[in-house]
Amino acid sequence: MATKTTPTLVDHLVVGAGFAGLCAAIKLDEAGETDFVVIEKDSDVGGTWFANTYPGAACDVPSQLYSFSFALNPDWSSHYSPQPEILAYIKRVARDSGTLDRFVFDTLVLDARWDDGQSRWLVSTSAGEYAARTLIAGSGGLSEPRMPEIDGIEGFQGEVFHSARWNHDVDLTGKRVAIIGTGASAIQIVPELQRVVGHLDVYQRTPNWVIPRNERKYTGVEKELFRRVPATQRAVRAGIYATLESRAPAFTRFPGLMRAVEGQVKKQIAKAIDDPELREKVTPTYRAGCKRILISNAWYPALAQDNVELVTDPITKVTADAVVTADGTERPIDVLVVATGFYVTEPPMAQHVTGRDGRTLADVWGEHGMAGYKGTTVSGFPNYFQIVGPNTALGHSSMIFIIESQVRYIVDAARTLREQGLAAVEPTAEAQQEWTEAMRERMKPTVWMTGGCASWYLDKFGNNTTLWPGQTFRFRQLLSSFDVDKYDVAPLTEKESVPA
Predict the structure, then answer these.
(1) Which positions carry the signal peptide feature in this UniProt record (predicted)?
(2) Tens digits of residue pLDDT in 14-48
C-alpha cells in the first residue's frame, strides 16, 4: 500500500532561481522572512543566463544597470556584459547572500493548488511536496522555448536545437546550417556562426530595426575607482538609468520620435550592405520600437558575407536533410538552429497553478489574456505573487529595476500577512479590472499598438499584456508599499498559527 508523503511546511515557496527568485530570497531573508524554499528546474542559479549559452550570448542592457542595486559589480569587463560574466555575477551574489541553503535544484513544479481549508498552496514537485503560505513565481517569461510548428521538422535527420538549449557537442565547422528567426538571440548567433560554418541560411519572417551597439571596455583604472569609491559607480549607474528613461516617451506617447532611430539604422544598413535587394529585405516597413529594437554592430555585415543567404520566403516544410520554402526552393542543411523565442504571453507555469475556484491560471488567462493587479497578484489566486507578471516587461530599460520593485511589494505583503494576522490576501476583482483597463487605455497611443507590426508583445486577443506602458520610476512608486485596502483578506482562524 502506497504511503502519502507529508508535505514540507514552509512560509514562502519561490519558483525559479534567476534574477527574480534570487532577489526574492535575499530580500525575504533580510526582512526576517527566513522560512522559505527556492525551487529551480536547472542545476544552479542563473535562470535565463544559465540556460542561454549560445555563441555570442550577451546582454543588450548596459551592465551597470543590469545588476542588483544592492550588489554592484565593479568588475564588469565592458558596457554590455557577455553571458558568462552575468552568470558568474549571479552565482557570486547568491553565494555571498547566505541564502543558498534554502535552494533546491533540479526540481520541477508539477502542480500547485490553493487549499482554502489550510490557507496554503499545496505544491507537488519532482522532489517532493510543499505546503506554503505564499507562492512566489519567479520563473519569468523567457523560461520555456517555443518550437516552430513546421511540417516535417520532427523528421529532420540532422542535429536540431533551440537557441536556448544550445548543443555544444555539435561541431559546426564547415557545416551547412540554417537558423530560423531573426530576433534578439539570432542577431547575436548569426555573426558567430558565419565565421565558422560553410554556409548559413537565415530565415527571416519580419526584419528588425537594429541599432549600433556602442560597446566599450572598462579600463583597469575605472574598475579600481568603482571598487574603492562605490559612489562613482552609483553615479555612473544613475546616469545610464536617466538616459534610458529619457527614451520612454518615444515608446509610450510620441512614436513619431522613432523616425530618428529609423534614419540611424538606415545609415548603418547602407554602410554595411552593398546589394540593394538585401538592403530592402533587412529594412522594416513598420515604426521603430513596435517590435523590440535590437542592438548589434555585426548583424548587417554578417548578412552581407558570401557564405550567408537571407531567406524571406515562408518555410513550407522541413525534410530529412533540407528546408523547403513556398517558392519550391529546397536548401540542403546539416544542422537546424531554431531561434523562435519563448512562451511569453502564455507562460507554461500558468498551466500548473490552480486557484480558489478550481481553474488554472492558464484557463483564466486563456479567456481574456494575461491580467493581474500591479502585474504581481491575481484575483482568485490568494497569496500568489508573480514576478515579471502581466504588463511588467520593458522595451527601454533594465528588468532588474522592475524585479526589485515587485520584490519590495511582495516582501511588504508578507509583513502585512504577519503583522495583521492574515491567512490570505488576493486583489479584489474591481481593483484588478480597474488596473487592467488603465493599462489598456495607456497602451493605445504607444508605438507597440500604433507602429504597424505584429510582435510577441501582443497576445491572441491583440492586447499588449507584456510591457509596462510608462517610465519605471512610476512603476516603483505604485508598488512602494502593499496596499491591503485593494485586497480581499481572510484572517487566521484558531486552527491556524501565525507564521513563526
Answers:
(1) none
(2) 999 999 999 999 999 999 999 999 999 999 999 99
String of DSSP letters for 174-218? T-EEEEE--STTHHHHHHHHHTT-SEEEEE-SS---EE-----BP
Instruction: Give all strands of the β-sheet with 330-332 in edge-to-edge order.
Output: 315-318, 322-325, 330-332
Give, for 366, the enclosing helix (H) or strand (E): helix 361-368
Phi and psi dihedrals of 159, rounded to 5? -80, 135
Task: Give the separation between CA 431 and CA 5, rounded to whole angstroms.
Answer: 39
Q: Report helix, strand or coil for 361.
A: helix
- For the chain, which domains are there? 8-144+343-491 (3.50.50.60), 153-208+247-338 (3.50.50.60)
Q: Determine contact, residues 419/494, Cβ cutoff 8 Å.
A: no
| Residue pair 241/397 in contact by the 8 Å Cβ criterion | yes
Which pTM does this prediction carry? 0.95
pLDDT in tens, 283-336: 999 999 999 999 999 999 999 999 999 999 999 999 999 999 999 999 999 999
CA 394 to chain centre: 9
Q: How far apart are CA 262 and CA 254, in angstroms?
A: 14
Q: Which grid cell is 3? A: 504511503
**Residue matched to cell numbers 561541431:** 171
